Predict the 3D structure of the following.
Amino acid sequence: MFLYIINISQSIKNVNAGLNSRIFFAILIFITTIPTMNIAYIRVSHIESLNGTSLDTQEKRCKAFAELHGFKIDKVYSEIVSGGIEFRKRKIFQKVLKEIKSNGRLIVSRLDRLSRSVLQTLQLVEDFKKTHNQLCITDIGNVHTDGVSRVFITILASLAEIERTNISERIKASKEIAKKERRYLGGYSEFGYKVDKNNQLIPDDKEFEMLQSMISLRRSGLGYRQISQEIKNKYGKRIYFPQVHKILNRPYNRHF
């Protein structure tokens, strides 16, 4: 980069020795502030009600945003982690921060795909200011170049945190629905359920959480092998992909 700048400096002097120094420094500043890396970060959690937030949909939105604003996505990183997990505890996101360095762009499809924590989000914006990086959110814009976007990001970050609470409530509601009219018909009990004293199937807390996770990951576009691996990573339980396929294709599980 420095050799490139020196060559430009020499070329300018050769072409026109009387070039105004202020123009030269303006060119120099422009060159040194061009984003060096454009990275798209896409995320889904194990347990959440997905609504247009599949990995594939997010990637398409990020690439469309980049094309609209005249640049290309250099790399796409995906991560399966809760939006409430701190940035420093996300392995993939930490890799993104190391690669983006200075004068880079981070593109996400929606604010809640970045984080559901107001404090985390605003702190990241401040950190990016110091490193001259830019945060771009496809449905908001570049939060570092537009004052209105900064107001939006504060409001939306608050809403994302509220949505995180709502997701927890929806999981509880799913458990209540699952308790109704589920009779045990003999043999092995279904994965995610146990048999109570009234011979009725009721959710087994740990397995039901894993079941909801598998359903959400499938809705986000992951294959059965990937789901099997993610369940092992998160819960430490190996469920082989043919079994994952069998569990997810049971008629009742398709309703969730």
Notes: The chain is about 55% helix and 10% strand. The first helix runs from residue 2 to 15.
